[in-house]
Amino acid sequence: xxxxxxxxxxxxxKFEGFLLVRTAEQRTSSNGGKYLDMTLCDTxxxxxxxxxxxxxxxxxxxxxxxxxxxxxxxxxxxQMRIERLRNPAPEDDIDVSALMPCAPEKPEDMLSEINRTxxxxxxxxxxxxxxxxxxMCGDKLMYYPAAQRxxxxxxxxxxxxxxxxxxxxxxLLPLYPFLNxxxxxxxxxxxxxxxxxxxxxxxxxxxxxxxxxxxLLGHLVHGVAQVKEAARRANVTGEYVLLLSHMVISHxxxxxxxxxxxPMFPEAEMLHMLDDMDAKMNEMExxxxxxxxxxxxxxxxxxxxxxxxxxxxxxxxxxGEKTENNQDAYLGLL
Length: 334
Known about the structure:
By secondary structure, this protein is an alpha+beta fold. Helix content is 37%, strand content 18%.
């Protein structure tokens, strides 16, 4: 399956190949015509797509489609105008691993590391709560993303984000020995686990919508309820339940970002900073992958700014950037 990645696409580039359907729906334009509005993706990223043919039904979320289209720019963002779309044929050579964004590590390995961390906790109260919280997530934890479109929006992205925050905490704990290490570790593991109830995801890590709990409560409030239910199941009472609940509800840092309380003790503040850092670094990594060296990205909504991809002292011509000639050579192979 020879095809360019979405990250390599620029305005006026032609694309023909297979993509994974993240979202797809039929909409009505201002003049009453029907069209398809889709988000299609590969492992390098995703792109909004429009197909101005009202007779084509929207493909199923999580399915693979073959498309032919042209990349355009709309409101400062790249968008693909789809000219042809079809389902895969039996004879098609499809590399599924190139289409489905996945965490860089196996979910089984990440979950095992988390469970080993829980087993090493010296505080039996935290150990009991965390074991129950992991059980409550069930199999969803193996494939759920951490977000619908922002950071760690990939299969097993929730585990990827959780293990990254946990590892960062382990690196920083020796620098701040006054922190309660077990409490920070528990917060790192617990802070986003209720995302398994916040939205609806298929096993490919595609989020179709937010659940009723997600829309009415959100993962912060639902997360506090999850901590308290886990404590009840583990027969744990006392201050640790309150502290862990506060860490969950305050980890976004401020009211404008959804936290009804700011972090009010050191471990809660550290969790907020680690969560914010990992989310931003993951999103910036994705932006760098799809932005040529020496160029600026489109405005990134979650960061409220454009980003620059440095050349790091190396001329862009020596970095293997795609050119129009590269694009023509690819199209000649179709």
